[in-house]
Write a sequence for this structure.
């Protein structure tokens, strides 16, 4: 067997946002969000369930899973593979937009329902060892909670390092599924339980059409290209920074050493040092 890489937005929505995904999503949300006793998710409605035809010809974009819980709380679930500019602002914007759009003109503010933005990232986001980070509106010095109407929850997959033998909780098992499904060829025994087993069934490529597989491969190609572009930009930035430092050192050595000695000390070409000497005269 082969399974989709659930970290791609396409596969993530297929597994968690399909019409048949309701029990899967309920388990997933209860495991990751950790609702208080008595407030666990027992029922929900998936907003705009995934349908293959809706994605035909679709531009590369972000596809969220959205759900309205039985008590009218709203949850936005997103799997983010690429750390793009404005990502954190977009998460906050989407949560605030979902909160504010609940009211029609003239309706009372007391009708507003809480919004939870649950985001999983395939990159490190915060300078902490914690896999999960939660944000609420708090008073700056005494940390008094204003309200819990908007909550941002992040899970950083690179920080989740448990192997199959270490999976103790349902949260551990769901995180392992998200992070590793794409490299597995069998369902691990520790994950062979409902509804994770059903999630594997949806992600099983054997049951998919060629059209489905091509959609997934296009997402992989897009991600590979974007990651390559990011890596090249980083390397170019490092190289440029090193050159700037070398030129600064060379400038300070012009009165003390000849061009060959400066080139040897800084790694710059001799002709570059000679141009620098001419420019500073």
């Amino acid at each position: 067997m082969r399974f989709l890489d659930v970290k791609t937005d396409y596969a993530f929505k297929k597994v968690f946002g399909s019409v048949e995904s309701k029990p899967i999503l309920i388990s997933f949300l209860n495991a990751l969000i950790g609702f208080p006793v008595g407030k666990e998710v027992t029922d929900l409605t998936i907003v705009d369930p995934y349908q293959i035809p809706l994605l035909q010809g679709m531009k590369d974009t972000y596809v969220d899973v959205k759900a309205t819980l039985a008590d009218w709380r709203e949850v936005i679930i997103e799997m983010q593979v690429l750390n793009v500019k404005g990502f954190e602002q977009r998460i906050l914007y989407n949560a605030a937009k979902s909160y504010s759009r609940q009211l029609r003109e003239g309706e009372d503010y007391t009708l507003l329902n809480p919004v939870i933005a649950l985001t999983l990232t395939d990159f490190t986001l915060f300078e902490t060892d914690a896999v999960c980070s939660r944000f609420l509106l708090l008073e700056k010095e005494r940390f008094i909670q204003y309200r819990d109407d908007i909550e941002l929850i992040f899970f950083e997959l690179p920080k989740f390092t448990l192997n199959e033998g270490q999976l103790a909780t349902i949260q551990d098992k769901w995180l392992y599924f998200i992070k590793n499904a794409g490299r597995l060829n069998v369902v691990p025994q520790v994950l062979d339980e409902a509804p994770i087993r059903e999630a594997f069934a949806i992600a099983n490529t054997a049951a998919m059409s060629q059209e489905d597989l091509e959609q997934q491969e296009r997402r992989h190609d897009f991600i590979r290209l974007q990651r390559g572009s990011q890596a090249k930009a980083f390397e170019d930035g490092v190289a440029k920074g090193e050159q700037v430092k070398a030129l600064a050192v060379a400038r300070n050595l012009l009165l003390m050493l000849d061009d060959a000695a400066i080139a040897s000390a800084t790694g710059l070409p001799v002709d570059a040092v000679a141009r620098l000497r001419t420019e500073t005269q």
